[in-house]
Hints:
The chain is 83% helix and 0% strand. The protein is built from 16 helices and no strands.
Amino acid sequence: MLALLRSNPMYLRYWVASWLSELGDWFRNMALMYMVLTLSNNSSFAVSVILFCEFAPIFIFGPLIGVLADRWNRKKTILAANLLRIGFVILLIGGYMMESLLVLYIGAFLCSLGTLLFRSPAPAFMMQFVPKDDLKTAASLRQITFSTMLMLGPALGTLVYMQLGASVTLLVNVVLLLGNVLIISSIRVPGADAEQQTRTGIQGIRDDFKEGFRYVIHNPVSRIVMLSCIFFGLGAGIIQVLQVFVVTDFLGMAKEVLSIILLIEGVAMLAATFFIHKLKWPHDRFLSVGMLCMGIGFTAMVVYPALWALCVGVIVYSAGQVGINVGLSTLMQTKVDYAYQGRAGTAINTVFMGCMVISLISAGWLHELLGLRAVFAGGGIVAACGGLLCGYLFHKEDAFLRSSQVPVSNAQSG
């Protein structure tokens, strides 16, 4: 990993910029949650609304943003999206000063839309300056950023909010996003400023959307990845809602213990990233084995009512998550054509989020109907079966997976 950072200064800048973006997102998310709780007098309905506002743009605008991300200059799109995010965070500050929940809901929706616009062209942009052989390492470094921020982001965001207030916390987010803009602006890639040659008008956008949809369905890798995201999304939704009940109901401990579990999850993901990076497996195996580990860990969390058993389950589940993330990212960037990165990525993300939201909505009802153990065991079995199914499908497409699908190098225009 250090070799890539030393030999590729453009990726080093991009990696540093990703740290600023991730930390800024945690500052905004924590501040937004506390602001909504404060203004709504701890209303659970208000929390549900704000979560809906953060997820809704993916369903409503995901396919369109994917088309635009493939049509527009990638670097300029990322920079413009960051500037929009800064403006939307300032809107959140104004909404809090006016004590308006409505403005916070609107601001959260727009921030989510800006983040979607920021992330959609990112894989193709990175492909402009990261050689194909280094994409797995780049994905591992990106996972390190995510795992570290999972450990530190909520605590840092909460600390700044409690000590300095909502407005200062959001202003820190603005400063971090400005740093991201400055660093991304300094990345110079040959041909990166060339304009995309695309069909213009509504008809052109519609044609690009149809073409992208056909590509995602007919490309064996994106098709299998989309299938895996159904299982991944269903499991992720269950654990987000019910993990706290494993601590309180199953183990009979205080809800504050959940913070320790989340810390263990972040440490486990960070350690798993370094371990997985050393494995010389085919990229598709990381995804299928990761789903299998996710299912095993999911079930292990409720096998025995003891804290150590929960921690073991969380560690196995976290390792599976890392395998899924690294495998998925590397497969998408090595086996999906450069020209379709935006459309394929947003289509798959939309499927993942859709299944996760379904799981979020139904998890509480299933908990009451079947009990905690049954829901976790069922979710674990589904995830493990998904891993086995994807492994079988990847094996069938072995010839395709072992060949090079991306005819472009790191000198692509974007």
